[in-house]
């Protein structure tokens, strides 16, 4: 047991162990990186190591404290329990008054985006002001063990006006507590929050490492393991929970949208495809945009004439090569800039389908080419 179970990003693990060993533990950490790469897992392991009854810079996994904190490894079960206890028909005031907090040990809290209801969750779960105020009150309590740890998973879902509540904690940090935020990118958070955290970016794992994890933790066939590792793009957590057939079909559907946009034909079918994508409840809109970004990254390598490109979507290599003969790198950059605008607009409740339709139409050869928007604006 211990940190040796965590695969990949060894430098981050070494830095955290060094902080524990020297007793110079930061009051706030920011873990960024793609979903499923292990941010929440390492945050939970850090909480175990910070409170282990037997080890100083690691955790034994066997003492009562380690065992209780390890129950956070399956947060979905705890979320479901919390929603049942709060009530399926909880109104807005109840959601804030009874915040969703995952706690299996008095010194360790995990906060996840609140879906509000179990049977009919909201479209965009988020960290809510009631959760943050609960942390604000509890952060200054003295720990029963060595250190209090608060894990805020999905910190990017905080509304920026609500995030100011959390900022107050960082401005006057408690001496015996560490707050760990996880997010896909530091740019999804307020700069004032980012500047007060020690940042660690989690790189995707090599495909062989993802395949190794899948062999150990799943009963999938070798062909499915290889395909899942390819589609997960270095995120073992994503690969474990992935429906391989559905994920592969989603990428084919997404590529078809790019193909129709590039050829400027069949707009009725194109808009039908974007409508189906915008209404897809099996994956978040951010994940859907991530598929577009992955395909466009492959196209950028192809159109830039990179020698022996390493494609993220290797099973679609033939289709991508054909599309790469139709478009150029300027078209790909325009598409990426357009999806950047859609991603930013999604946080402002942009109509997703209209955004996708407008971008697809603008990429058609029949539409006059406009320069990509300046990222500095």
Structure description:
The protein has 377 residues and is of the alpha/beta class. It folds into two domains: 3-203, Rossmann fold (3-Layer(aba) Sandwich), CATH 3.40.50; 243-362, Zinc Finger, Delta Prime, domain 3, CATH 1.20.272. Helix content is 51%, strand content 8%. It has a six-stranded mixed β-sheet with strand order 2-3-4-5-1-6. β2 and β3 form a beta hairpin. The termini are far apart.
Q: What is the strand and helix layout of this fold?
A:
Layout: H1 10-22, E1 28-32, H2 39-51, H3 64-70, H4 75-86, H5 92-97, E2 102-105, E3 108-111, H6 129-138, E4 148-152, H7 160-171, E5 177-183, H8 191-194, E6 198-201, H9 207-217, H10 222-232, H11 236-241, H12 244-263, H13 267-278, H14 285-303, H15 317-324, H16 329-346, H17 352-362
Number of helices: 17
Number of strands: 6
Q: According to CATH, what is the topology of the largest domain?
A: Rossmann fold
Shape: globular
Q: Please, how many domains?
A: 2
Order of H and E elements: HEHHHHEEHEHEHEHHHHHHHHH
Give the % helix: 40-55%
CATH architecture of the largest domain: 3-Layer(aba) Sandwich
Which terms summarize this structure?
377 residues; alpha/beta; Rossmann fold; Zinc Finger, Delta Prime, domain 3; six-stranded mixed beta sheet; 17 helices; 8% strand; disordered C terminus
What is the gist of this entry?
The chain has helices spanning 10-22, 39-51, 64-70, 75-86, 92-97, 129-138, 160-171, 191-194, 207-217, 222-232, 236-241, 244-263, 267-278, 285-303, 317-324, 329-346, 352-362; strands spanning 28-32, 102-105, 108-111, 148-152, 177-183, 198-201. It has 377 residues and is an alpha/beta fold.
């Amino acid at each position: 047991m211990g940190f040796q179970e965590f695969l990949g990003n060894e430098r981050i693990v070494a830095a955290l162990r060094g902080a524990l060993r020297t007793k110079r533990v930061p009051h706030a950490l920011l873990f960024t990186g793609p979903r499923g790469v292990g941010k929440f897992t390492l945050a939970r392991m850090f909480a175990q190591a910070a409170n282990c009854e037997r080890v100083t810079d690691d955790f034994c996994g066997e003492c009562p404290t380690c065992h209780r904190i390890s129950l956070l490894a399956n947060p979905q079960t705890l979320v479901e329990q919390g929603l049942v206890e709060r009530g399926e028909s909880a109104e807005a005031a109840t959601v804030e008054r009874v915040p969703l907090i995952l706690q299996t040990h008095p010194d360790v809290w995990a906060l996840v985006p609140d879906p509000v209801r179990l049977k009919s969750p909201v479209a965009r779960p988020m960290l809510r002001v009631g959760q943050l105020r609960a942390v604000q009150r509890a952060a200054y309590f003295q720990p029963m063990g060595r250190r209090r740890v608060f894990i805020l998973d999905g910190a990017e879902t905080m509304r920026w006006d609500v995030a100011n509540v959390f900022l107050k904690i960082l401005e006057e940090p408690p001496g015996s507590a560490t707050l760990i935020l996880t997010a896909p990118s530091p740019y999804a958070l307020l700069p004032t929050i980012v500047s007060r955290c020690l940042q660690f970016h989690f790189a995707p794992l090599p495909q062989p490492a993802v395949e190794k994890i899948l062999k150990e933790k799943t009963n999938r066939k070798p062909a499915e393991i290889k395909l899942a590792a390819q589609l997960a793009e270095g995120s073992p957590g994503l690969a474990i929970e992935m429906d391989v057939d559905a994920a592969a079909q989603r990428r084919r559907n997404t590529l078809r949208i790019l193909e129709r946009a590039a050829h400027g034909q069949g707009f009725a079918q194109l808009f039908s495809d974007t409508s189906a994508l915008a209404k897809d409840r099996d994956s978040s809109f951010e994940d859907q945009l991530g598929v577009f970004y992955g395909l466009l990254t492959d196209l950028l390598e192809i159109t830039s004439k990179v020698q022996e490109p390493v494609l993220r979507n290797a099973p679609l290599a033939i289709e991508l090569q054909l599309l790469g003969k139709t478009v150029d790198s300027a078209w790909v950059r325009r598409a990426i800039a357009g999806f950047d605008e859609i991603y930013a607009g999604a946080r402002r409740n942009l109509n997703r389908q209209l955004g996708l339709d407008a971008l697809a139409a603008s990429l058609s050869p029949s539409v006059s080419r406009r320069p990509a928007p300046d990222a500095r604006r």
